[in-house]
Design brief:
The complex is a heterodimer. Chain A contains one helix and ten strands. By secondary structure, chain A is mainly beta. In chain B, a hairpin with a 2-residue loop joins strand 34 and strand 35. Chain B is elongated. By secondary structure, chain B is α/β, with parallel strands linked by helices. The chains are: A mainly beta, B alpha/beta. Chains A and B meet through strand 1, strand 2, strand 3, strand 5 and helix 1 of A and helix 18, strand 39 and helix 29 of B. Strand 2 of chain A pairs parallel with strand 39 of chain B, so a sheet runs across the interface.
């Protein structure tokens, strides 16, 4: 693990999202609760919709283009849609947000 | 040989250390106890009952002066420790040195003071010790207003105590719900409701800007510009470990003084205990782990093996009448599931969090009787697979019944209004049912409930089901989505009749099955709340589709389109130049004229939006809301200004209407047009609302569409003057806003309620028309403003458009 500090928890609105730019494209950070954040690919496998612009509900996000819903725990598409987005370790330390740089590194190599 | 032990800080944990040491080996140490407060150890947890007047200070003292004297402890109370000299092994007090063989730092925590202007005025207090408590009691004796900054455990206990002592109390809390670290949104909502019921005002999302006053605090100024009068200001925003002495002595300090499992700091002769320590990344604020630490520290000092370990914690609030419990990890963790139980009638909410067939967290409000049982399951890691079905009902319940989906309706008081059109309340309907009206038709015939617009039909059905029990088979109505069994009409009606003014209130009182809805219901509920409570409810951008959150239309490649408003389709060379300049500057790939008589800049990058808006704002251009479920455009023809057939100033009326209506949110998009004569060049008769000018005045048409369906309008009425036309259109817009389902255009909604009903409301009833137009105006006082300017000028909002971080360089290294 190589934890990188990427910002303050309140930089992400509750039930909202922000993106982090990486060499292999954007990763979206979703804030699902007061101190609960998930990180996943920002790109919907269906038509490439920006998931960070979707509505965050429970521990899921709905793609803004065609309403595909992804479980942020597993990255799996819900319901009848089939597909998966990559998820990455992220943790909240006090009020700081830390993302695992190693997992992001593997992503760009893949 | 007796060793010298010096303890800095006479608090609850060090008090416990002394007790353990004396019990085990009274002769082991010669003890000196420093305390900055001019008194010994008392039960700090009980300060809240002292504040509220339920207890006195004497009752909460744990170690009296005599107690220390009898045990030969040297007390240096009311004396600050200046520094620790590790080389000489000496503690330097204000009144002289004390050498040590072993040293214990128990300095506790310090209140966090927000450094806003005025934070140091007299009349601003924190809430940590007896002096603070006494200061509050003294202030409360004079009565007046208190503002408590911070809606966590301490802040709420302070608020309840001050209210008990007769003050007028307001609690300010920075985030969306109270005690957000211990409670989820639903439990926070119920807590708020209980506090409000006892007369405490709660303001969430309230950020303090300054404390105002000349010689002492007189008022609190919020970021929103609101000013609250205050004779007393209590800062209870949080605590931080008091680490100054340890820092100065160059011990290892992170957030707290770092200790190992034996409570030893980085200096083997110095130990630390209590709220000032950090162990394996954890800080401690509750008493149970502090007592565990005290036991371990006493053993370490006596050379006995023992190790401190972090255990699960449970929280309870010590405010009489507010029954809440939270334990374990309910907000974080992966691959977990929720079990939620809500009983709106009793104000009960329970949520269990399960992972790998084990309970890992629990939040409860209203009924916490099973708290310790759940806490036991969490601590023991019990496999709950077998009892999962009935788990949430607690230990006493094994075997069956599920929550009643009708409980929200059953919980309504008899005087709750069910049918707004005819003013029929629940009691009248249940009486009618008991009197033999056992189906919808009979209810309509006897009470007129649901006989007009019909939007309360679902509620009447549920009342029949509740009252008749199994004897009634309700017709199936489509619920909003999978999160609820209520229809849109039910939700709207209940939001009004139960005065639900927050999303959390809707989820709880209407028995939602998900924590915060989904992409289908949340935008609808957000709209219903802002339409019904324009002043009380604040629009939640995170409950909106991206276009309305970012105030631009997302395109298939993730870029956005930007459409500035052109009032009534009229523009100027300067505006056109500004649009052309913006298109050049931001390399806009496509510039297109829209069907709504304005210009669309397509292909703008999300990050560039605030910048392009600033440029357009400078030329006087504002958002065209081309993305919203709200007023889009008012299309016009040139009217009497230029046209030889024009009968009225259609362009002028169009501009007036657009300036009156813009910014308003509606159930679906709202398009208008004004044509200057029946030739209808502005195509007014296929708009949601259209005006056709004639010689004698203005024909107002409604319910047209030219989208998925093509519909011609129907005539609503005629208006003699432009002012009258504007009033009718305001009232029409408002009645649509207040009654339609989310995502129904006017024509669809008219199919449900009928044009005759609308005519009766706003054409035949002039008073009702005026009142509706007034309510529209009230809502517009909040929403008639340019979102582009707001987003471009507010630095926090503007930041949301940029990436949170850019790791492209870092990861490449």
């Amino acid at each position: 693990m190589n934890w990188i500090d990427i910002g303050h928890i309140d930089d992400i609105p509750l039930h909202g999202a922000r993106v982090v730019k990486t060499p292999a494209g954007c990763v979206a950070l979703f804030r699902t609760g007061a101190a609960e954040v998930f990180a996943a690919d920002d790109r919907c496998p269906h038509k490439g919709g920006p998931l960070s612009e979707g509505i965050v509900h429970g521990q899921s996000v709905t793609c803004p283009l065609h309403n595909w819903v992804f479980d942020l725990n597993t990255g799996a598409a819900q319901g009848v849609d089939e597909g998966r987005i990559g998820t990455y370790p992220v943790r909240v330390d006090g009020s700081r947000l830390l993302i695992d740089g190693d997992a992001l590194g593997k992503r760009s190599a893949a | 040989m007796t060793q010298k032990l010096v303890i800095i800080g006479a608090g609850m944990s060090s008090g416990r250390v002394i007790e353990h040491l004396l019990d085990a080996d009274p002769g082991a140490y010669d003890i000196t106890l420093f305390n900055a407060e001019p008194r010994g150890n008392y039960n700090r947890i009980m300060l809240s009952p002292v504040l509220s007047g339920e207890k006195t200070y004497e009752e909460i003292v744990t170690h009296s002066d005599d107690w220390y004297a009898e045990r030969g402890i040297t007390c240096r109370f009311g004396e600050q420790v200046v520094k620790i000299d590790r080389e000489m092994k000496v503690v330097e007090g204000e009144n002289g040195h004390v050498p040590y063989d072993k040293l214990v730092i128990a300095t506790g925590s310090a209140p966090f003071i927000i450094p806003v202007p005025g934070h140091d005025l007299p009349g601003v207090v924190s809430y940590r010790d007896l002096d603070d408590t006494n200061a509050m009691i003294e202030a409360a004796a004079k009565g007046g207003k208190a503002v408590v900054i911070g809606g966590g455990l301490l802040g709420l206990e302070a608020a309840a105590g001050l209210k008990e002592r007769g003050m007028d109390v307001t609690v300010l809390h920075l985030t969306g719900h109270l005690m957000e670290r211990q409670l989820d949104e639903a439990a926070g909502y119920l807590l708020r409701k209980d506090l409000e019921a006892r007369g405490i005002t709660v303001k969430t999302q309230a950020s303090t800007k300054a404390i105002l006053g000349e010689d002492r605090a007189q008022a609190v100024l919020l970021e929103s510009g609101e000013t609250l009068g205050a004779d007393l200001v209590v800062m209870a925003v949080g605590i931080r470990p008091e680490t100054r002495l340890a820092n100065d002595a160059h011990l290892d300090v992170a957030r707290g003084i770092e200790v190992n499992a034996q409570m030893q700091t980085s200096d083997p002769d110095i130990y630390a205990v209590g709220e000032c320590v950090e162990f394996a990344g954890n800080l401690f604020g509750l008493v149970a782990p502090l007592y565990d630490q005290a036991r371990v520290l006493a053993d370490s000092l006596l050379g006995q093996p023992n190790a401190f370990a972090v255990k699960e914690l449970a929280t309870k609030l010590k405010v009489t009448g507010c029954d809440l419990f939270s334990a374990g990890d309910f907000a974080e963790g992966e691959t977990r599931e929720d079990i939620v139980f809500r009983d709106p009638a009793r104000g009960v909410y329970k949520r269990l969090v399960i992972e790998d067939d084990r309970l890992i967290g629990a939040v409860m409000y209203g009924d916490t009787a099973d708290g310790s049982w759940f806490f036991g399951l969490i601590k023991d890691g019990t496999d709950i697979e077998e009892m999962r079905e009935a788990l949430i009902f607690g230990p006493a319940f094994q075997g069956g019944a599920s929550a009643d989906p009708l409980s929200a309706v059953a919980a309504l008081p008899p005087e709750a209004e069910i049918c707004g059109c005819n003013g029929v309340c629940k009691g009248q309907i249940t009486r009618a049912i008991k009197g033999g009206a056992t189906d919808l038709g009979a209810i309509r015939a006897t009470t007129k409930a649901s006989a007009s617009c019909g939007t309360c039909t679902g509620l009447v059905d549920q009342l029949l089901a509740v009252t008749l029990g199994d004897g009634y088979a309700a017709p199936q109505a489509q619920p909003v989505c999978g999160c609820t069994s209520h229809t849109h009409e039910d939700v709207r009606r209940l939001i009004k009749s139960q005065e639900l003014k927050s999303q959390a209130a809707v989820w709880q009182e209407l028995g939602w099955t998900t924590p915060n809805g989904c992409h289908v219901c949340r935008p609808a509920v957000n709209y219903y709340l802002l339409a019904d409570w324009p002043l009380e409810y604040r629009d939640d951008p995170q409950s909106r589709f991206v276009n309305e959150r970012k105030h631009a239309n997302i395109q298939k490649d993730g870029t956005f389109s930007v459409v500035p408003r052109m009032w009534g389709g009229i523009t100027t060379p300067d505006e056109l130049r500004a649009i052309a300049d913006a298109a050049d500057k931001f390399a806009v790939p496509t510039v297109k004229v829209t069907g709504g008589q304005r210009i669309d800049l397509l292909g703008v990058r999300g990050e560039d939006l605030p910048e392009i808006w600033s440029d357009l704002n400078r030329a006087g251009l504002v958002s065209g809301h081309a993305y919203s479920k709200g007023l889009r455009t008012v299309k016009t023809c040139v009217g009497t200004d230029h046209c030889r057939f024009g009968t009225q100033d259609s362009t002028g009326l169009g501009i007036k209407l657009e300036k009156h209506l813009w910014g308003s949110w509606t159930p679906h998009k709202l398009k208008l047009a004004v044509s200057g004569c029946p030739r209808n060049c502005a195509e007014a008769t296929c708009k949601d609302i259209g005006v056709v000018c004639v010689d004698s005045g203005y024909e107002i048409h409604v319910g047209g569409a030219a989208g998925m369906e093509i519909k011609g309008t129907e005539l609503l009425c005629k208006a003699a003057t432009g002012e009258e036309a504007i009033e009718v259109i305001s009232a029409m817009t408002q009645i649509y806003r207040e009654n339609a389902r989310y995502l129904d255009r006017i024509y669809k909604w008219l199919d449900r309620v009928g044009l005759d009903w609308v005519k009766a409301q706003i054409v035949d009833d002039a008073e009702n028309r005026r009142v509706l137009a007034e309510r529209f105006q009230l809502s517009q006082s909040v929403y008639r403003k340019d979102p582009w300017a707001e987003h471009a000028q507010d630095s926090a909002t503007r930041a949301q458009y940029a990436p949170l971080a850019n790791l492209t360089l870092e990861a490449a290294e």
